[in-house]
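Protein 1 of 2
SEQ + STRUCT:
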Amino acid sequence: MCRDVCRVLLVVVAWALSSLDLRAQNSFLPEGVDDVGWPSVRGRDHNGHSPEARLAERWPEAGPPVLWVKELGQGYSAFVAHGRRVFTQTQSLAGQYVVCLDADTGRIIWEHRYDLPYDPVGVYPGPRSTPTLAEDKVVFTSPSGLVCCLGASTGDVVWSVNVNQKYHGAGCEFGYACSPTVVGKQVLLAVGGPGASLVSLHLDDGRELWKSGDDPASYTPLLPIQRAGRDCVVGLLQNALVVCDLHTGRQLARVKLSEHYDEHSAWPIYREPYLWFAAPFRAGATMLRIPKFEEGSDVVGLDRVWHHSDFSNDVLSSVLVDGHVYGFDIIDVQSKTQRPSRGYFRCQDFETGKIKWSVGSQRAHRDPFEEPFNEPYVGQAGVVVADGKLLMLNEIGELILARVNAERYEEVSRVSVLGGELVWTPPTLHRGRLYLRNQSRAVCVYVGDLDLFVDRPKTTMSLADIPQSNYVDWAGAILSIEPEYAFDVPSSEWLWQWFLITELMLLVGHMIGGLTSRLVVARTDFDRRQSWANGVARTFTFVVAALGTTYLSRWTGRFLFTWPLTLFVAFEIVVAQSRSRTQFVTSGQRWKERLAVVCVLLTCATYFALCRRLSLVFEWVFLAGPPVAFPFLVLSAKWQRRLGKLAPMTRCCWQMLGYATFYGASVALLKLKY
């Protein structure tokens, strides 16, 4: 009996000590504010706000102290935090993981592997959603639609269900990215299935509580709100915005937003009774008024209060502070993976939609061929609001501290933390520390008052210890003109334009080759003159085609894709070398053949890498073209040898026919695919 009493006392004492320790860790919280950490991607109230105070008024020139840096891997998942632990999702070649880290050291406490790598060499590799913490549980989703609940202490699986398979979800073509929203015992998700546009699962066992609607989903998580004392949930879906009863799922209101393909990633903002949301594709921001819902009433529409075209959000959300919205107005159609998005960081009056101030530029941040501009630049940035300040991590990895000021942009400090890669993951604030990450590493920096940094590690790092480089917009320099929708199939008009301009390059190359051979080589040395003409023509065509996508596009003001011609020329050289073999092959000829093969492999690899870096996702069809055109190229090379001393223009026609076959085969594959 005494032993049992002692055990109970020990448990109580341990709980009390841990509570005291937890309270000591959160000296940034005002008196009377409960410590719930940063439990979801947008914080405790789903709005990007933190109650933490006593943050540093400005940072030293060398930057705030760095607690740890960790190579973390691929993924867009942000951190969630409670106590001395932080959680996120990531990916390596071994698979996708949920990881639990020590908040002060970055040491991995546990990790849970849940799937194979997702799109590891694609445009958007890795998990896209952020876990959610509730009742010592971690709830997360995966790009395949898996919803899983783990024990926060151990990482053990509590329950799991694949909502895409169970409910036939639709609307998330680039991978499921809806972070779970937990309210009480409900796990709320946008799924997009028939009769299951929105779904509520039980936190304890994953069983279905309710499902509602038929609209396809998008990437924005569900937002819980209250209207006239009634608990509701808002779903910003692919083509509609809906409001449902939180407890039953009954649809209360619906407004149609668009037709056909559309997407939404940024969170809406609610201040009763008004709901603000901004969309990509230059759709702008809209304010709706949510009515009081009567019991048993039919589904109603929502009144539009105002619409403003100059405030579009894409992958990062805006915040509302003191009646004003702060966020990035993207003027590109969508965010770019190859360069910083163009647009303005703005302050907008919540009630009227009036823009109070804007900073930024229509250009990307740093163009290596232009002088840097002097106006303030924020760019697309994830924002956390705390202690009257805006803590922003922008796309080029700069951490910015600015004061909340509706009259003007007031920047206090700026440091580079994750330079060299584009960043789409918003920051997380917990215990005076910011947790940041990009597609390769994670960083924890201390941004609180140094007088409160009583539990600092024995050694801290500085920003100079973080491996990073200045971001240079090489993509913007290479693609001065780019397609607005990189994922769209090129139109027939574009394909014809590209074909005609590259055929013209071939013709001009042969003309220059023939002219220079006449000037350099004696008239009687026909074989040498032919070899010289072919060499000059191929070199000229290869170089002009390689530069044409950049400079012809800039000159004409339209996107002209000439790189396929470089593939054809490199491949045609290999075929010509193989067909020029004589009965007795010399070592010199062997080396020429090997060099030609190496050149075509390097050309293909460079072409593929550049297209992937620039998000030109139709590049594969032109890589498939040479094998299809190979038989014709062999016949072309064979007949060119038999032509003897016929006019050089005849040889030019053969090569232009060969390119037409190569290009036509590529376009045919494109049409068959799409």
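Protein 2 of 2
SEQ + STRUCT:
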Amino acid sequence: MSRNPLLESHELPPFAEIRAEHVVPAVETLLSESREAIDRLAQQAASTPPTWENFAAPLEAVNDRLSQAWSPVSHLNGTMNTPELREAYQACLEQLSAFGTWVGQHEGLFHGWQALKEKHWAQLDTAQQRTVDNALRDFRLAGVDLPADKKARYGEIQSRLSTLSNQFSNNVLDATQAWHKDIENQNELTGVPESALDTLKAAAEAKGVKGYRITLDFPSFFPIVSYADNRALRREVYTAFVTRASDQGPDAGKFDNAPILEEILGLRHEVSELLGFDTYADYSLTTKMADSPEQVLTFLNDLAYRAAPQAKEEFAELSTYARDELEIDALEPWDVAYVSEKLREARHAISQEQLRPYFSAPRVVDGLFQVVERLFGVQIKEDSAAPSYHSDVRFFRITEQGNPIAGFYLDLYAREGKRGGAWMADCRVRRQTDDGLQLPVAFLTCNFTAPVGGKPALLTHDEVTTLFHEFGHGLHHMLTKQQIADVSGINGVAWDAVELPSQFMENYCWEREGLDLLAKHVESDEPLPSELLERLQAAKNFQSAMGMVRQIEFSLFDLRLHHELKAPSANDVQALIDEVRSTTSVVPVVAFNRFQNSFGHIFAGGYAAGYYSYKWAEVLSADAWSAFEEAGIFDPETGQRFRQEILEQGGARDAAELFRSFRGREPSVEPLLRHSGIRAA
């Protein structure tokens, strides 16, 4: 048998050696060996009282070996997608799902954890106790108590759901990449900034065509809808974007996700009923900070009540400006970003494009590292010898007092075969092994405009905050002090608290002390002028109420979808989002908008009945930031407390308890409203 690099132990994934044909054999081998090892541990636990050392630790090692093989495969599927890799990835999903169900319903394993709790609870430390409790909870959520026929049905559902989620994601990627528009005459692109024109030109050249190529990748789509004076072009690009993977628009029906989301929702409701929950939302919230769907709805509706009047004012102002200054009598959705940019420039004399020269990607990355080093007392250095998977991707190591503590891959730029958005994912998790301490490694992925013509990539301020956001997730993963995989880093953290460190880090992109480390003019090396900073800060809450109600709209739609509808049709889903928009949204909606068909967060990510987590965690992050406002944003003592009470703890303690330890009290919504410029505060 030929050598398979996915079966070997490595400090970092051997990307140069991994081939699509390695994936299925490696996963099949690992699943078979894992099943044998787990059965052995369960049999041993039935005859010999299980301890942490003879039961929990070896079980963790089995799980980690599988995780270390699968994490690079999953990451490459999202960042270097090819037909061969996609096929191999897809072929493994059902097997991995079946294995997860088998483990979750393994009665011998369940009894082993129960015996560990009953016999050795007092000898376990806090992190171990948390791991045991989470394990027992998760067994029940996997249907360990169900009769055989229902257990089997649970397994069928989970397997099908993993396949459907992957297909949903593939359809969005394929629909995004299927559409393009080539333009030869630059006059049709008046208003579009030079940096974006360079990107469009490079995209055309890469495909061997003249002129400019517009695609639905965000670095191409966004400048068109935000800056193109050509209203018909804005409409065409907007229409293609909001109808991706649907029965509408230029590729109507070709990649339609409607049947997939119908089946996903029906199966989610069925699995929640199997496990004794009224709705999927009730099931989802068992692992979150929020106690019930009703509590979340009250939270969201309260925020909407506070923000809606101001959002309506903001939109009315936008409409008036469009009519009086731009001769747009009726503001359409494809006009909103464009008119907003014009109004932002008129009122604050600032635009995202104006700021780009101050945010060259290399400088921003260096500044981000300086912020982290000052705040948490660590050092970050590139390791160019580390194995990588693309020439754009860089690897860095984090050390403290000369000792290595973590590492991360930084993959900043959009390219073909890479799914959109920005995210952090585990490559390795911090855990104690027989050979010593395994250090955490993160994948940090963004989709910024790539550098063109030998010049550095210039980021918008929004992109800078995105980078800081994802790095906050990375810090949560990498600065953990936990040594048990299930509570290490973001593992075991309540989903509605997991955005706290990421949203917290964004604040450094708005403060002079933070910006001085990362904002320098690409040509003159001058820092961001005070006048421009004042305008940036003044514009920070430009349309913030409109932005808040938009997030509330998505959150309400998601929660109500999983709480009120049992097995909805695509028409039922459309009716619900229309109803939510009628009470929440202030921006006009066109009948062909099929946002839900590309809402990967809830249909292909982990946010089902949990999208509200962004706003919930924002309450925590704004309140945490107010502690730094009081002490100084680089105050070392406050930085160390944040590190010790939040980042290092991982999922070892309850999120609400950690927040109280850091802040000395319960969280308050007032800092969020104040930071967002919501006058109802």
